[in-house]
Amino acid sequence: MSDKPNTPLLDQVHLPADMKGLSDAELKLLADELRTETVSAVSVTGGHLGAGLGVVELTVALHAVFDTPKDRLIWDVSHQCYPHKILTGRRDRIRTLRMKDGLSGFTKRSESPYDPFGAAHSSTSISAALGFAVARDLGGVTEHGIGDCIAVIGDGAMSAGMAYEAMNNAGHLKKRLIVVLNDNEMSIAPPVGAMSSYLSSLYAGAPFQEFKAAAKGAVSLLPEPFQEGARRAKEMLKSMTVGGTLFEELGFSYVGPIDGHDLDQLLPLLRTVKERATGPMLIHVITKKGKGYGPAERARDKGHATAKFDVLTGEQKKAPSNAPSYTKVFADALLAEAAEDSKICAVTAAMPDGTGLNLFAERYPSRCFDVGIAEQHGVTFSAALAAGGMKPFCAIYSTFLQRGYDQVVHDVAIQRLPVRFAIDRAGLVGADGATHAGAYDIAYLANLPGFIVMAAADEAELVHMVATAAAYDEGPSAFRFPRGEGVGVELPERGQPLEIGKGQLIAKGARVAILSFGTRLSEVQKAAEALSAKGINPTIADARFAKPLDKEMILNLAAEHEALLTIEEGAVGGFGSHVAQLLSDEGVFDEGLKFRSMVLPDIFIDQASPEDMYRVAGLSAADIEAKVLEVLGVARIGEMRA
To answer: Can you tell me the distance from the alpha carbon of 42 to that of 40, in angstroms, rounded to the nearest whole number?
Structure first.
């Protein structure tokens, strides 16, 4: 491509070892070129831009000072890893980010030895770095050996309990371990909670430059004669701010905060830490998300996730939409319900924009709660809201709700509390790949006694399911919906509560019945059109509920057809398994019914477009058509004739 930026110094860096001979002045130039290359690459691929731009200097400094891959560099969440990938032998593929057969948008062990630990959910890096450090000290054997263990974690990720569990353990074990707190005052949404306020106070109470002077002050790292004076200066500065730090209480030597974009500060400090650190160290760096690229700096989310864009203007190249997104439909439906019922409130875990609850927060700020990256807390908090007489809608992506599963079981289900789970990003999600797939929620919720589990076949059904959840107060309920746009059906003005556990017949046919749960219904209808050309007209039904099942409808379908297929956007163990259990309990298989269940395959599917991913999964219209022909024996007849 002719519009790639001019990067003469970066062109010479193929691996981090190539940086070892560069002067500090050259490293500054390298950082500038790395930022330009990152913007250029993401303009072609789309992806997480702001996080990477915020850590360009930090990435250069860490790779220049430490010896990766022996030294284990672990990026928390790893939205910010694109510059790291460019410096670690993957620049030639950086314009395949998040594409089919391309680079993952996250760190991935199978992709490179420079990615020692895969990540895409937050707050795992300190636990992982500590695990590597203990493995090192116990003599663990790995291909590249294990040297220093460095975790880079954002201030948003520090709001999750797992980060503190790890720090508490690390302080106790006293292993040499380096945690870099990348404090940009912003994860995806502006950070919330006391931790954010605490970090702000650490650098708001005294002039920044005084801290810079003291930062050279990880006191124990200094030669002995200087330690006492430095210790007094540091104590004085600490008393000027918050009178000591939480991190030192946890057993970490705390250094900072320092300017994460100033290599004149970063390089000497990291070199000193590498040379002299003994136990756990926490280096607090202040960065700016989207740094160095105007459109990202000006964006409300600092360029968190972008489509392909024009480098000069930052304008995103999104195809015009014919239908609203499911997320927007959910958000509008919830607003309509909340306008009629003052008990309805909403809870999200650091994803107000992603879940559409930013609209709810604007309209009803006192009834909307962003708990930070803390799904476990969010679920239990919702449970107590319900016990306190409110009607909480807990809006969490399927992949993130997995993090709160124990709380779903113990605090919600066992107590039969009417928490309404709005599960976004159900099914396969495209560019984010396996880590963000909503593959398991049907299975992990439908096996819980007393849980109502729904899936919308289209955006109109989603509106009715929001109303159903709002009206249902006997116990917990969940409704799932995918990422992306609806199918373009007309939306009702207001949702009407559905009868619990009742599906609907879509089309009456013969021989084979297809029972769909969720948005594969449109693919089922395409398959039915193709089958009708072959003289086969399937019956089509929309289950709506995985729990409770519409037993009457399912048993009638089984009695009136020689074959029954179920289809869902979920892993084995979900809707189809519950239908099979019903048919088994009722003795239907004794009568010779042919039954097939189409589910996601028993593999993790790498990133591609959702259409490509569903083809890999075998859940496209062509796959449904083939399955019907196979179960009816039509495919075999064709083969015999040939």
So the answer is: 6
Structure tokens at 479: 């409704």
pTM of the entire predicted model: 0.86
Q: Which amino acid is it at 515? A: L
pLDDT digits (tens, 9 = 90+) for 279-332: 999 998 889 988 988 888 888 777 777 788 888 888 887 766 678 999 999 999
What is the band of 111 on the pLDDT scale with cuts at 50, 70, 90? very high
In angstroms, the CA 420 to CA 475 distance is 9
pLDDT, tens digit (0-9, with 9 covering 90-100), for 572-618: 999 999 999 999 999 999 999 999 999 999 999 999 998 999 999 99
CA distance to 172, 410, 421, 450, 592, per residue, from 415 (Å): 36, 7, 15, 10, 41
Query: Taking Cα atoms as reference points, which of 415, 364, 348 lies closest to residue 387?
Result: 415
Listed in sequence order, the residues at least 6 apart from 101 whose beta carbon sits closer than 8 Å to its beta carbon are 606, 608
Tell how strand 504-507 and strand 539-542 pair up: antiparallel
Residue 185 is which amino acid?
E
Catalytic residues: 289, 375, 403
pLDDT of residue 579: 98
Return contacts of 22-30, CB within 8 angstroms, 24+ apart: 22/64, 24/263, 24/264, 24/267, 27/60, 27/61, 27/64, 27/263, 27/267, 28/263, 30/60
Give bridge partners of residue 281 from the DSSP assignment. Answer: 178, 253
Are 593 and 632 in contact, with CB atoms under 8 Å apart?
Answer: no
d(CA 127, CA 133): 10
